[in-house]
Amino acid sequence: MAAAAPEGQVPPLETALSCGVCLSDFDAVFRRPLILPQCGHTFCRLCIKDLAARGDIICPSCRHKYPSVEPDALPVNFNIQCLASSSKLLLAATKEEEQGSLCPEHRVRLAFWCKSCEVAACGECLFDRHPPQDTHAVCRILEVVEQVKQRAEQLSLESCEEVILRLGDSVSRTLRALSDIQEAAHLLQETARIYRNAQTASNLSSITSVFEAAKGVHDRVWALGKGGQEDSSVSIPDEVIMSSRPAILALSDSGGLAQVKVEPKGIHVYSLRPSSTAYSVAIKLTVLTSCIKKESPMVFLEVKAGERRLGRVYITLAGKMRRAQQFQALCLGSLGPSYRGTRFDGISEKGEPGEYVRGGDYQGKGGLGGEALMDNLEWGGEWCRPKASGQVCGVGGEEQRKFGSLFAICLRDNPDDIFKCPFGEVTEGLEVLEVACRHQPFNVVHIADCGLVIPL
User: Which runs of consecutive H residues, i.e. helices, occur in 245-282?
Assistant: First the structure.
């Protein structure tokens, strides 16, 4: 416990949170703490304005002169401002807590709880109205506080899980409804265009082209109504339905846009693009990311060899690990860089136990880049695991920060060797990487897109 300040002396923290000229507390309105940049001393805005009104500003502490300086152009000491605001809230909360913990009748601390009457009581109350030897069941109030705390935590977790499920379902239905509206509008335009072309077609080639277009639109109309017809005799692949729908985008706090698609495996949130992308409907990205399973988030990598699509890889991450959080951020691009467009840089131990493919160099340095975006990434020690097929592991420890975003995906088991920090596992699509490793040339294999998955 910190020693109390001597009588008559102002505690150092309170001194730092008040202006040295007027001794008033700093605030975020009239008495904002402004820094005199060359000497570093801080005074409130009103006092500095008063000094400026007399001529050049002269620091009251060190007498450093600031000629022709406008007070409103001086930087705000936001650290002091935040501390001042927090200090006031903490003081108010402490006083409220102290008042609430005293018995209103006897002004003695409420240290007991009467289970029979379901009220808090002090020692005097036990003697007067809640004698334990009678019919009153009395216990210490700390026991009740702990029980209520545990119950509140349990209810909060249950509510959180339930609301995530409901939110995910609501988002899914909303996205489908919005997508249906947009698709219907597109189909109306296309049917009108096809009808005009059919009227003007005059030879076999032109009418055949119009017929194929009309047939395609007709299939899309059936696909549009498929959601409400579980017993429909028309069978159209889900990927055809989804690919024909216009994109709906998610808007990040930084202004980036992410494409959102409802696919058979869940809601897919693709990596962020610049805000210049045109869109008609956008959902806040934070609404979608709140539905992600924090303990085991899922991401995906869309793998291509040149222009040829090889398939999609789904990875479940160990959500509590910082490497997993960094990998998730790189799949979404929420910290700036993204794995989208990056190449797989090589294959190690090819054809042998423990074979793995390497990637993640978002800086495009041929596997010699990929600087870490986060500090204190796990490495070695308790994080070591035997190499197992499907494991996703980091590359380079804390001392090799320039490789911190690189990753390796194991294709073959090798219990005699280890990975230093597995943080995820391929749950679907490992065969895609096996095909990629056989592709020649290998240097065209890349991650065409990536993102997050919200399972439904």
Answer: none
The dihedral built from the CA positions of residue 174, 178, 181 and 183, taken in this order, carries a sign that is negative
Give yes or no for a contact between 299 and 452, defined as CB atoms under 8 angstroms apart: yes
pLDDT in tens, 65-74: 988 888 888 8
Radius of gyration of the chain (CA): 32
Question: In a 10 Å sphere around its CB, with 0-12 CB exposed, 13-18 middle and 19+ buried, how is residue 31 labelled?
Answer: buried
Rounded Cα distance between 454 and 171, Å, is 10
CB of 217 within 8 A of CB of 191? Answer: yes
Q: How far apart are CA 255 and CA 220, in angstroms?
A: 33
Q: Are strands 385-387 and 414-419 parallel, antiparallel or unpaired?
A: antiparallel
Task: Count how many Cα atoms sit within 13 Å of the Cα of residue 231 in the half-sphere of its side chain.
Answer: 0
DSSP track, 18-52: B-TTT-PBP-SSSS-EEE-TTT--EEEHHHHHHHH
Cβ neighbours for 403, distance < 8 A, ≥ 6 positions apart: 368, 370, 371, 372, 395, 396
Residue 327, strand partner residues: none
| Sign of torsion over alpha carbons 238, 239, 243, 249 | positive
Q: Give the pLDDT band (50/70/90) at residue 241.
A: very low
381 vs 398: CA distance, rounded Å: 13
| pLDDT, tens digit (0-9, with 9 covering 90-100), for 263-286 | 888 889 999 988 766 666 778 888
